[in-house]
Design goal:
With 79 residues, this protein is of the alpha+beta class. Helices cover 25% and strands 30% of the residues. It has two helices and four strands; from the N terminus they run E-H-E-H-E-E. The protein has a four-stranded mixed beta sheet with strand order 1-2-4-3, covered by helices on one side. It is globular, with a radius of gyration of 11 Å. The chain starts with 8 loop residues before the first strand and ends with a strand.
């Protein structure tokens, strides 16, 4: 099944580590409108668990996670 999402903003954090990864992501999400989608690119494997964990306490939701050979991508819908 293919999911096509309208990407509203792209945040490239490849090379960044936690906690800065989470701080930047939350900052960008706070400036977005509800329903908009943030594409987050990164290389820190810890962020794959940290970002969903932090977002679990709010309205923003991870809607897709994809891993590639040298980076990963999270799509987050602003709540």
């Amino acid at each position: 099944m293919r999911n096509d999402f309208q990407i509203d903003r792209i945040l490239d954090l490849r090379g960044w580590g936690c906690p800065w990864y989470v701080v930047k992501a939350k900052s960008w999400l706070n400036r977005m409108e509800p329903g908009q989608v943030l594409e987050l690119l990164g290389t820190d494997p810890e962020s794959l668990s940290k970002v969903p964990s932090v977002l679990r306490h709010g309205k923003d939701k991870v809607i897709e996670v994809k891993q590639y050979a040298d980076y990963h991508r999270l799509l987050i819908r602003r709540g």
